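Appendix C. Worked example: Beta-glucosidase
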Amino acid sequence: MKMRDGFFWGGATAANQFEGGWNQGGKGPSTSDMMTGGTHTTPRRITPVLEEGTYYPSHEAVDFYGHYKEDIAMMAEMGFKMFRMSINWSRIYPSGYDQEPNEEGLKFYDDVFAELKKHNIEPLVTISHYETPFGLTEKYNGWASRDVIDHFLRYCETIFNRYKNQVKYWLTFNEINCLTMPLGAYMAAGILFDGKTELTDGVDSPQTRFQALHHQFVASAKAVKLGHSINPDFQIGCMIAFMTTYPNTCNPNDIILAQKKDQISNMICGDVQVRGAYPGFAKRFFEEQGIKLELHQEDERTLKEGTVDFYSFSYYMSIVESADPAVEKVGGNLLGGVKNPYLEASDWGWQIDPQGLRYTLNHLYDRYQIPLMVVENGLGAVDVVEEDGSINDDYRINYLRDHIVQMKEAVADGVDLIAYTMWGCIDLVSASTGEMKKRYGFIHVNKDNDGNGDLSRTPKKSFYWYKGVIASNGEQL
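Step 2, the predicted output written as structure tokens:
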């Protein structure tokens, strides 16, 4: 099965992990700028006040801010049709609640989009990707407050008008379903719970998280409607961190548990943003969790009128659920689960499941019947630079090849798939750990976990492999 003509092959990044220039060009601090480095075993910390002598990985990241022309040229050499990137909200509105935008920040993205156009690369822009202005955390505790909706819409109106002729494809919130999990409160919504300094310190309030999620649903729906009024050609999508979930056994208890995990982790968000209403199972879940959402009278209509044009998602792995508390557990992207004996795992313990991508694509398309994009998929691994400077990342090629094969199977199954932007096309800072050691890219960046390195860019073996994939529209794997 061939991919459709005009299929969008490309790569994906996020400003907080990639852009750098955190205090340049009038930019204010974002939530990610207040997060220290970490490791696989040492959690990142959140510091409400910057600590002297402490390393903050997003401050420089890999400096796309200073290397964007070089980076886009390398994407073009691979043949990219699409580049997924995010606009750093605090580069446009430094505190988040400013009344006027920062012109220097707007001009930077003018230049980036012009460079992409020069190379015939379509931008896919995430409006909010773990980059809430920290000023909104300080003033409102982030998305815990409904007041943030209006500030977000001012930001949206600014960028929709400014870039209405440069950008067609937009995503409102990255991995919006992160707020269904404790880890997502700060990263996805800028919420600080009392005493919380580490992303994994166990402090949580489901009431606050799901109220913040509702605020983001309303904001997303209003942004979709606003965007379509500014340019009817805009295509505006949702973005979900898809948690593909299998039952551990055919025990009905395992089946029901896996179904519930899928419903809460994935389908609440997809249903609200695609179908325009909370699904039936949400009512029981909220009641059992003691969650009482504060809804405004017009919210129901807003959600119904602001449904998305396409559905995008990240897919790295699958997880397994068991009702037996004694079974062996493993880690994963935002959410861990039970060890799957049929799968291998990455260096970071994420279970590698290419066929799960085919399953997921079918699962989603059967439910929603709108175009799909895979906007994150990749392998975080330790790369070795050989004496001659080469990087032979066959493990990355194998991972991506196997997933692309399963994407093609899903297309043969009848799924309307329009784009594939693998994650971290150029090495960047890991969101979960703050490391550089965990590399995803086709392009190596000379920088280590402590921030040392000259940031020089070097193609890996996978760079040339992906170039062939794109040139053949997925036939040459």
